[in-house]
Specification:
Number of domains: 2
Number of strands: 0
InterPro entries: CHCH_domain-containing_protein, CX9C
Helix content: over 70%
Protein name: IMS import disulfide relay-system CHCH-CHCH-like Cx9C domain-containing protein
Pfam families: CX9C (PF16860)
Number of helices: 6
Order of helices and strands: HHHHHH
Organism: Jaminaea rosea
Structural class: mainly alpha
Largest sheet: none
Shape: globular
Distance between the termini: 22 Å
Domain IMS import disulfide relay-system CHCH-CHCH-like Cx9C: 5-48
Length: 112
């Protein structure tokens, strides 16, 4: 997964930087940054095939984690409280991404 993140950072640096700056500037209304989020997602999908697989296969876990973070922000939870509230969702997302990565690796090995 680290390799994928490095590829996204390398190939989508402009989109990533723009999205991060927007989020930092709009912490009380992160939906303002949705156009930048979409641009980053599109770039990442092209840069790293694994990202497309993860987005498709792990959509429920992604939405659950995203929803948890948004709820925590609305409630004004501290970082520690947010980590506690959303840690389980993050573990579920991590497990799903690891499974997707293993499946992609196995599919690649079968083709060779």
């Amino acid at each position: 997964m680290e390799d994928s993140m490095e590829r996204v950072a390398k190939q989508c640096g402009k989109e990533l930087d723009t999205f991060q700056r927007c989020i930092l500037a709009n912490q009380t209304s992160p939906s303002t940054c949705d156009p930048y989020k979409v641009a980053l997602s599109q770039c990442a999908a092209q840069a790293v095939p694994l990202m497309s697989k993860i987005k498709a296969q792990c959509k429920p876990a992604i939405l659950a984690f995203d929803g948890c973070i948004n709820d925590a922000n609305r409630k004004g939870l501290s970082d520690e409280e947010t980590n506690e509230a959303c840690g389980g969702r993050l573990r579920e997302l991590w497990t799903c991404t690891e499974r997707a990565q293993a499946e992609l690796r196995d599919d690649g090995a079968k083709k060779q």
